[in-house]
């Protein structure tokens, strides 16, 4: 009797994940969602350079006290996440951006294709970092900022500039960045 199960290796696992990632991306690209197309295109553009997060941070700073501290943590987390995604992740992995067919069924949903590598999603990393850093410091903001970060991440897939795996990696990077900033802030406060 021979064992017909495929051998599990890192290479085969990565290959399967890439195949799944591309299939999920393709499923999004062929799904008709005209109302979402406009909203997500605008959201994706508004998240460029963390403009949304910085606007929220500015509003929190004006409130002073605990909201101000939350804003400082959030902005610091954006800095760590953005640097990690753009200066390390994209340069190390160099994954090409998703292919957009010239005859795309829904070209109105696209945003301009960035010139940088696809992996990880810097927009997602920064949005999640901000939400994950602000949330524990200001619990009332946790859910709205978390939902906004999720929407920003999905908007990057929907608008055709990232694969789902890029967004997942960006979210993990953003979470880690927030944890690093929170840990460093806690050490500074103790001393």
Automatic annotation (TrEMBL):
Record-linked SUPFAM superfamilies: Acid phosphatase/Vanadium-dependent haloperoxidase (SSF48317)
Which residues span the membrane? 70-89, 128-155, 167-189
The protein's topology relative to the membrane is: Multi-pass membrane protein
Region feature Disordered, mapped onto this chain: 96-117
- Every copy of the Phosphatidic acid phosphatase type 2/haloperoxidase domain together lies at 73-182
Q: Which organism is it from?
A: Streptomyces humidus
What UniProt keywords apply to this chain's record, in alphabetical order? Cell membrane, Hydrolase, Membrane, Transmembrane, Transmembrane helix
Pfam families xrefs: PAP2
| Keyword Transmembrane assigned | yes
> Which compartments does it reside in?
Cell membrane
Please give the name of this protein. Phosphatidic acid phosphatase type 2/haloperoxidase domain-containing protein
């Amino acid at each position: 009797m021979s064992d017909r199960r495929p051998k599990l290796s890192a290479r085969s696992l990565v290959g399967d994940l890439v195949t799944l990632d591309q299939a999920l991306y393709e499923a999004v690209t062929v799904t008709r969602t005209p109302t979402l197309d406009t909203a997500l295109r605008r959201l994706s553009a508004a998240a460029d350079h963390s403009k949304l997060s910085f606007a929220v941070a500015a509003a929190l700073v004006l409130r002073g006290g605990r909201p101000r501290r939350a804003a400082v943590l959030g902005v610091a987390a954006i800095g760590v996440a953005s640097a990690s995604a753009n200066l390390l992740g994209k340069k190390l992995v160099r994954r090409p951006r998703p292919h957009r067919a010239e005859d795309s069924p829904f070209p109105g949903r696209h945003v301009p294709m960035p010139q940088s590598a696809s992996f990880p999603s810097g927009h997602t990393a920064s949005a999640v970092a901000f939400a994950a850093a602000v949330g524990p410091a200001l619990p009332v903001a946790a859910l709205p900022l978390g939902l906004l970060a999720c929407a920003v991440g999905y908007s990057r897939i929907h608008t055709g500039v990232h694969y789902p795996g890029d967004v997942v990696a960006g979210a993990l990077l953003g979470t880690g960045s927030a944890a690093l900033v929170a840990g460093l802030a806690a050490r500074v406060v103790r001393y």
